TrEMBL record, chains A, B:
GO molecular function term, any single one: 5-hydroxymethyl-dUMP N-hydrolase activity
InterPro entries: 2'-dNMP_N-hydrolase (IPR051239), Nucleoside_deoxyribTrfase (IPR007710)
Signal peptide location: none
Name this polypeptide is given: Nucleoside 2-deoxyribosyltransferase
PANTHER family linked to this entry: 2'-DEOXYNUCLEOSIDE 5'-PHOSPHATE N-HYDROLASE 1 (PTHR15364:SF0)
Length: 196, 196
């Protein structure tokens, strides 16, 4: 069975356990074996050190064949940084990496609405800049170009919501669509086998 | 000569070119050959597509032996997401990865001061949570535990400022100290050779 690493910030939600259980249930429904952060949290919770958590996730990423990452903005403009780390890590390992976002706006629009809310953007220099002079990426991507760029360069796909759902931290509509697409991709896409 | 990939959000600054030139000059002073995003921008600027920028950075990361990443908070609580992607990517490739932050506060403190500014934090459940119920990592690390955890698990180090400098986006004091330490590390630390 193909193992899928479910990256995302759901571990931080107050209702992490039922949300993550539902994500795993859906992954199994599409024929995947789910793994990822907090994937054993339906058993008795265990207090782990940061190093232990890192080691468990590192190992799970190496064992998985596919990554499906939730890059919905987390406390700001961009995806949860732990999730971004995992996307870069799994792309470097040659895994098949996919992502989804429940936010319909691209990165450049979110920098304007979330970070520079209401402030004037300088569009005169050929590159949009905030009032602090810092350039705003405008490649139309879901997040920083390394994230979308890495996923697209290796044959993956970033799935984006058409409209913002009522509960972006928990909505599973785009997640479901992503699983469906990944499960249906042609056999020629089979990711390289895990290095261990 | 050991090639060092200088990851960081300086490419977005209005004065990106002189800042990045100074970072490269300092790296050379310590015996490193610098590479990384925008590293040819002292020549005539070339307009590249997102895919071209990604491919150039991907290639530079594979060719480099060491990464030194600027994880000073960028437009919010955490490091620039492109930089975080690069840290995960280079750790997965087996490179020696180091990071520095010009912000002295750990991640948990910054979530409180930058994101939940002034709002009450719930400390009653054994895990601090914002008023939205979302848990706040409190491992005392510079950023999300995957970042510090990955760097520390592979023998690297996160260098942090003792106090916030006047210009956190440009200050090079901690960067200089990081270069000095990396240049002085024993030969037994020599990172594995690049896969191509």
């Amino acid at each position: 069975m193909t193992t899928i690493y479910l990256a995302g910030p759901e571990v931080f939600l107050p209702d992490a356990m039922p949300i993550m259980a539902e994500k795993r249930r859906l992954a199994r429904q599409f024929g995947f074996e789910p793994t990822g952060p907090g994937s054993d949290e339906n058993q008795t919770p265990v207090k782990r050190t940061a190093a232990e958590i890192y080691a468990r996730n590192d190992d799970a990423m190496r064992r998985a064949e596919i990554c499906l990452a939730n890059i919905t903005p987390f406390r700001g403009v961009s995806a949860d940084p732990g999730t971004v780390y995992e996307i870069g890590f799994m792309i470097a390992l040659g895994k098949a990496v996919f992502a989804y976002s429940n936010h319909p706006d691209d990165y450049g629009l979110r920098v304007r609405s979330i970070w520079y809310a209401g402030l004037e953007i300088d569009e005169t220099s050929g590159r949009p800049r905030g009032p602090d002079g810092i350039a705003i990426e405008n490649h139309g991507m879901a997040d920083n170009l390394m994230i979308d760029g890495g996923i697209e360069a290796t044959g993956g796909k970033v799935f984006r919501a058409a409209t913002l759902p009522a509960d972006p931290a928990r909505d599973l509509t785009v997640y479901f669509k992503a699983l469906q697409t990944i499960a249906g991709i042609p056999a020629s896409f089979t990711p390289p086998s895990s290095p261990r």
